[in-house]
């Protein structure tokens, strides 16, 4: 049995080498570096949304509480936005949810941009716009996972 698996593995390696493609991976070192860079970007964004953005809201830090009181949303709004950001941060690290998470976090950033302009006179309005750019990149590059997610959801129903 091991001999058959080894022969099949050698045949697929020979086939991959003759066509110049490696099955399941990018055919170039550049593609591999791009995948690693994108994954690193996802981790950095997940850390940002989970720690720097969601955590102060979820622990009720004074600065977050003041901002949400000024908006008129109170603690319920603060905890809700914090929970959404934390869920998005975690989902950015789960392969089947990456694209959907990036779109959802982008929608939150559109809302944050509008709030910054209308409530806070645009003081930090550029921050959400800057965050939308890498989120859009992640959503686009990881869009193939959406078909897998739909397949999983259909199988459950």
TrEMBL record:
Protein name: DoxX family protein
Organism (species): Streptomyces flavalbus
Keyword Transmembrane helix: yes
Main location: membrane
Ranges annotated as spanning the membrane: 36-56, 76-94, 101-119, 125-141
InterPro entries per record: DoxX
Tagged with keyword Transmembrane helix: yes
Localisation per UniProt entry: Membrane
UniProt topology in membrane: Multi-pass membrane protein
Coiled coil region boundaries: none
Keywords for the protein's UniProt record, in alphabetical order: Membrane, Transmembrane, Transmembrane helix
